[in-house]
Every structure is written in C-alpha cells, then in structure tokens.
Design a protein that fits this description.
- The complex is a heterodimer of chains A (461) and B (293).
- Chain A has 461 residues and is of the alpha+beta class.
- Chain A has a domain of 226 residues.
- Chain A has 18 helices and 13 strands.
- The termini of chain A are far apart.
- Chain B has two domains: 171 residues, AttH-like fold (Beta Barrel); 121 residues, AttH-like fold (Beta Barrel), CATH 2.40.370.10.
- Chain B starts with 14 loop residues before the first strand and ends with a strand.
- In chain B, the strands form two sheets. In chain B, strands 1, 2, 3, 4, 5, 6, 7, 8, 9, 10, 11 and 12 form a twelve-stranded antiparallel β-sheet that branches.
- Chain B contains no helices and 22 strands.
- Chain B is mainly beta.
- In chain B, 0% of the residues lie in helices and 60% in strands.
- Classes of the chains: A alpha+beta (461), B mainly beta (293).
- Chains A and B meet through helix 5 and helix 6 of A and strand 14 and strand 16 of B.
Chain lengths: 461, 293
C-alpha cells in the first residue's frame, strides 16, 4: 500500500513538473507577422481617453481637495463626464461599490508636450520616478474619513507599498515599466490575478532603464517591446499594464472587449511632423545615404514604405546588452511562464529574443532620448559616437531642433561625483549597469557632411 | 512655491499656519522650550463684499507653550480672535493675535507672546536658505533651518535656537486614516535632522524619510517605543527609535503631556535624542492624524 502512495505521489509531482510550461526564446532574425484582432480606431481613441482600464487610485473627493484644477491645455475636449475636468493623464472610475476614484491612465507615460504641443503616443521621457511615492500617497489618508473611500485608498497604498522599490528609479527621465510589470506579476496569481502581499517569486532587484517607445510603431512591428518579446495578439499583450489593479480575470475580460480598438487606434496614429524648417535638398542627399546604409534594418519611407521586422543580435548592434540578456539568460523565465500561463497567454505569448529590434523611424525626431535605455540624448550624438556624453542631464524643457533631442548638458562627473542626492538623481550616468551608451556605431564611418545630410533626412520621417 | 513671495500670507488658503519653536537657556543654565503656533482659518472661500467692520474672512487661533524639564512642566495658553477691527490679522510682514505678534519681514524675525506678566520677546536670525518640505497641492510648507534666538522671558535673558515653519493649504480631517509624525532635531555637533513618517496603522513600519543636513538618510525605520494616554484615553507616541544606515537614535519626549488643544488633535513637544557614539540632540516632534484609543 505504501509503495502505491509513493507511486501516486511521484506521479503527481512528475505531472506538476510536466505542467510547468517550457520557456522558448525566439532566435535573432526576422520576426514573422501574426494575426491581430480587428479594431475600430475611433472607438479605440474614445476608450483610451475615457475607459478606466486602471482600476485603483485616489477617491475623487480627496483628489478635488488636494490636486490643483487641470489647466485648459491639459483638458481634452472629447473626454466625457467627469473626465472632462481631469488632466489628460487621469481618468474617472466609479467602483462597483459606488466610490468615485481618479485613476492613472496610459497617457501618463505615453503623451508628451513638445514645442508647446501635446503629442499623444510619444513617450514621456521627462517623468520623475526617482521619488518614493508612498509617503505622499499615505499622507492622503490625513484627508479621508469615509470608510468606503478609505478602503479603496488602502488598496492603492497596499499595491504601491509592495511595488514601490521596483518602481523607483535612480535617474529622472528613465521609465521603470518593465520592472514594475515583473513586480506585479510576482504579487499576482497567474490564473486568478489574486493579490498576495508576499511575492510568489522574487522580482528583479534593480529597475532597468527604458525609454518609452512611440505607439505609432505598432503599425509596422510584428512584435512588441525592444527585445521583441511581445508576440501574438498585441492588444492582449499590451493590456498587461492593467494588472496594476485588476484583481480578477473578469476585470481583464471587460477591458479586453475594447483593447483591439485601442490597438487599432495606436496603429492609426500618424507621427508628428517636424515643426521646424527642413533643408529639402540636404534631406534628399541624406535619403540616399539612409537607403544605402540604414534601411536594411530600419526600412524605407515614402510612398511605398518597407520594414524588415528583424531582431539584430547583440554582437551586431553592440548596444547595452542587459535588457536583452535578462530576457534570455534564464533569470526571467519565471515571468515568461507567468505571462504565458495567464489570461494574456491565451492569445499572446512572451518570447524574448537575444537582441533588439531596430525600430521603424517614423517620427524619430520626437522620440529622444535614443537607444532602448534612453542613454543618448540627441540624434546627432547617436550618429557620431564620439559625441555621446558619458554623464549628462537635461537642461530646461527646450527641444533642440538642430541636434534633435531635449536640451542637455555634459557633465565631467557621474553619480559618484554628485554633490548631493538631488544632483545625483538628475545625472544620466552611462557607466552604470543597463545605462550604457555603447554600440550602434554605424554612423561613425560617415563624413561630417554625410551625417548632416542624414540628420536632415531623419527630420522628414 | 516661490520665495520670498510666499513668506507673505495667503488669505485664499483654507488654513495657514506659522509655527515657531525652540529651546532657550537662561543665565542659570536652565533650559526652557517654547512653541508659538498661529493658525489662520478661512471662514468662507469667496466672501461677498461687505462694508461692515465686523465682516471677517479669517479666524486666528494661537497657542503658546512653555515646557520645563526639571521639574517637568508643560503650560499652554490659547488665544482666538476674528480678523476684524485690528484684533488679529496680517499686514506688511507682520501678523498679530491680540497682543501676540510675529514680525517676519526684514533681516530678523521678532516675536512677542506669553501670558500677562511673563511675555517672551525674541529676535531670531539665520543664514541658511529655507528648506521646502512639502509641496503637494494640498499643503505647501517650508521651514527656516536653525535660527539663533536671543531675547527676554519676563525679566530673564534667554538665548538658544529655534525653527520657523510656514504652511498653507487644506486642513487635515480630525480622525483621518493616516498619522503623520514630523521630527526636527538639532544634534549637538550642529547637524540638523528632519524626518517625516507617515503610517496608516500602528503596526506597519511606516514610510519615513529623513534628511541629515539636507542629505537623505538610507533605509530609515522609525518605531514607536512608548505612548502617553490623555484624559480621553487617546494614546500619543512619546518615545521613538530611529534606525538607519547612517544614524541610530533613541528619541523621547522631555514631558509626555505636550498635547495642544484645538480643532485638530496635535501632540507637539520638546524631545531629546541619544545615539551611538555619544550622539546627542534635542528638538521637536509633531504627531497628528489618526490616534489610538
């Protein structure tokens, strides 16, 4: 009898092992297209601006007391209901128990003002994630007395308490989205999405810096994210941000009804036109250079555009390897399994490649800083690696149309030489792990005249 | 926030506070702590124009405290007036409440407050720039770091150090869902320690943020060691342990009962600190928000 139990136990354990999904990485090279669910871009825009796909935040009553009224330039006329009074990056949500909340939305990271104009879809590269959000959020409790409101505020505090260490970066401007997503997976059951105060698995220790890519690239890309790990149905994969607050699959199913529309809206976005003069003759010269030297990875532009959809191996591109390596060195396998086993994995899958996808360059002028980690502040410096600063920081809010990027200054010292914490958090230090500005030196072989022409052409895309 | 513009008062704010507190020494080396809290409470956000001299827009509340260590004594006196007919108000960098006043404009700060026959008159001056401590839209607040203080308390000459804090914005609710503890301590080597610790229950570790001479301390954890119960049964923290990578301190109230009366339960009192390596210090702690029964 005992041997029967042992056999049963062994077979159960073996079965459990077999159920653990095998992690498959994608090879470098072409990324094939995959079917996408159809969507209505108009409905997608409406949903993006009005639907509460993030379902936790501050009670409206306290938000109105504590936050300044949204200035006119932050209100969008097509927003409905209470959203009309909120800034574009906040959304009204009435909870099932009737509490009105003000919740964050996608535009917090995916919209930015450049040259005085709000551009929806471009990454917000000036956000500050260096401050621990918890003290400010907890102090909101000083202004709450309604038990239902307190319960929702406490839930928000509970989530941020758990993920704040993975959300807090050490440099102003870099985005911790990847690290935040992994931390949330660590606290949620992949099958039910139930929250656990104690993580089921260990999240990565340090947020890796990421520059936020523009949404309009979706029109051309067959896979999401820098290392092409978002395969299959893109609408489903992009929804993963909703696990910030979604405690059950039913919430995700509700969002999934309009997610294909939002994806269709992203793909319909036209990149903003370069708002300053362009030397057409010089740009025409630059086009020749581009098509000779850049288009095999970045595609061609004009009436009949092409885009090769490739993953380029780390040895070839040479840019900071940490983000791509972390996807394929086994250290993230538990998160890949989580994703593929969850609601998201039913239509999409996580399948990273050991390299990076050279992005389509539509609207490239508006997407500074450059490279996946935002380590190169201008396009001019990207095309000439000798001009890339080791240590730099933003200066003011001016976009520099000549070098193409936010105005910055080069520093003679990195974070270690900063006089205090305040200065340290503003310094982009390319000597830190994950922050390197090496690689993609393909522009170095060009003459100065060729580089000027190429830069002029890039303004036209 | 923009200084020096925001040194002036903010009559549109629902609440504005000026707090001056410090530790003074008499010629006989007796130490005495004082606090002057002046609150301007907005009565109506947009009052209609009224010609009546009795038409008030703000109500001024004031608390003046004197704390002695040995024997332990805490005395608080209270004033309240509507800002009408010159009874209380602000003008030209000066604010007054009855015969208490605070002069903020100019190179020195001056104050007069106390009880009949025992007034404190002080002159304060400092070199360092103000430190902006809270900039949420709810409540804006800055502190003038360590000021040198000298003056007279009744007929006795006193000198010492003090801090001035000025804030304006929304009044927290009585019995809200969070508790805030603010520490302002001068260490005996001249360094200044400031901490804000916000917690949502007495069990959780809280989110403390501390600065030592404006440099952030790493991995700070503040735990409450002891509480004092007032006559209504509410318990206020009166002893704390501060642990961090850079500094460890035991902090305790000089006198447990340093609770202020008023619309928001506020414990605000003189504390002393001791730490490893013979570190010593003294200053003030303020606790408000939810409190345990």
């Amino acid at each position: 009898m005992r041997s029967l139990y042992v056999c049963l136990l062994l077979s159960c354990l073996l079965g459990a092992c077999q159920r653990q999904e095998k992690v498959v990485y994608a090879p470098p090279g072409p990324v094939p297209p995959e079917p996408q669910r159809p969507g209505d871009p108009q409905k997608g825009r409406e949903a993006l601006l009005n639907e509460p796909y993030i379902t936790c935040g501050l009670p409206l009553s306290v938000y109105r007391r504590l936050a300044p009224p949204a200035p006119p330039q932050q209100r969008l006329p097509e927003r409905r209901g209470l959203n009309a009074e909120l800034p574009y990056h906040r959304t009204h949500y009435r909870t099932p128990d009737g509490v009105d909340l003000v919740v964050p939305n996608c535009l917090q990271c995916h919209a930015s003002v450049i040259n005085g104009k709000l551009i929806i879809g471009v990454g917000n590269e000036r956000l500050d994630f260096t401050r621990d959000p918890r003290p400010m959020l907890k102090s909101v409790g000083l202004y709450l007395s309604d038990p239902a409101e307190i319960a929702h505020w406490r839930k928000w505090v509970e989530i941020l308490d758990a993920v704040a260490p993975y959300l807090t970066t050490d440099t102003v401007g870099v985005n911790p989205a990847t690290s935040l997503t992994l931390a949330l997976m660590a606290h949620r059951d992949p099958d039910t999405l139930a929250w656990s105060d104690r993580p089921w698995m260990e999240p990565p220790r340090r947020p890796l810096p990421v520059s936020v890519p523009p949404w309009w690239r979706l029109a051309k890309k067959n896979a999401l994210y820098y290392n092409a790990e978002g395969r299959g149905d893109q609408a489903r994969a992009m929804m993963v941000g909703a696990i910030l607050c979604a405690d059950d699959v039913a919430t995700l199913e509700r969002i999934d009804r309009y997610a294909p529309d939002i994806r269709a809206f992203f793909a319909s976005l036209k990149p903003p036109k370069f708002p300053w003069p362009i030397d057409a003759e010089l740009a025409a010269q630059g086009r020749e250079i581009f098509e000779r030297r850049c288009s095999s990875c970045h595609g061609t532009y004009g009436d009949r555009p092409t885009y090769p959809n490739l993953v380029v191996g780390l040895a070839q591109v040479g840019t900071d390897p940490l983000l791509a390596r972390s996807g394929t060195d086994g250290s993230h396998d538990r998160f890949i399994r989580w994703f593929n086993r969850s609601f998201f994995g039913r239509l999409s899958r996580a399948q990273p490649a050991p390299g990076y996808m050279p992005p389509p360059l539509d609207g490239i002028w508006a997407t500074a800083p450059f490279l996946h980690n935002g380590s190169v502040p201008t396009l001019a410096a990207l095309l000439d690696s000798s001009k890339r600063p080791h240590y730099w920081r933003y200066v003011g809010e001016r976009y520099d149309p000549e070098h193409i990027g936010w105005s910055f200054e080069t520093l003679p010292y990195g974070k270690a030489g900063a006089k205090d914490a305040e200065e340290r958090r503003h310094i982009y230090d390319t000597t830190l792990p994950g922050y390197g500005n090496q690689g993609h030196t393909f522009g170095d072989a060009l003459s100065e005249t060729e580089r000027r022409a190429l830069l002029e052409y890039l303004k036209t895309l | 926030m923009e200084l020096p513009r925001d040194h002036d008062d903010h009559p549109q704010a629902p609440l504005e506070t000026w707090q001056l507190y410090g530790v003074l020494t008499t010629p006989s080396r007796q130490k005495i702590a004082f606090q002057l809290h002046l609150l301007a409470i907005g009565l109506t956000p947009d009052p209609p124009p009224r010609k009546s001299p009795w038409a008030a827009r703000r109500y001024f509340l004031g608390y003046f405290t004197r704390t002695e260590a040995a024997p332990a004594k805490f005395h608080v006196s209270e004033r309240g007036e509507r800002a009408v007919l010159g009874l209380a108000g602000t003008a030209d960098g000066r604010l007054w409440l009855d015969d208490w006043w605070l002069q903020l404009r100019g190179d020195r700060i001056r104050l007069r407050a106390g009880v009949p026959g025992r007034y404190l008159t002080l002159t304060l001056r400092g070199e360092e720039a103000p430190s902006i401590t809270e900039t949420s839209a709810a409540f804006r607040h800055y502190r003038l770091p360590l000021l040198e203080a000298s003056g007279k308390w009744a007929s006795e000459t006193v000198h010492g150090f003090a801090w001035l804090e000025h804030g304006w914005g929304q009044l927290p609710l009585t019995g809200g869902a969070a508790q805030s503890q603010r520490f302002t301590i001068r260490l005996h080597d001249g360094r200044e320690l400031t901490c804000v610790d916000v917690r949502i229950s007495s069990e959780e570790p809280g989110s403390a943020q501390c600065r030592l001479d404006r440099r952030a301390l790493n991995r700070v954890r503040i735990t409450v060691r002891d509480r004092w119960r007032d006559d209504r049964g509410t318990r206020y923290p009166v002893a704390w342990c501060l642990r961090s990578d850079d500094l460890n301190l035991e902090i305790r109230a000089v006198v447990p009962d340093q609770k202020l009366p008023g619309p928001v339960p506020l414990w605000s009192g003189w504390v002393v600190a001791e730490g490893e390596g013979d570190v010593k210090g003294e200053g003030f702690v303020q606790s408000f928000g939810f409190l345990e029964d």
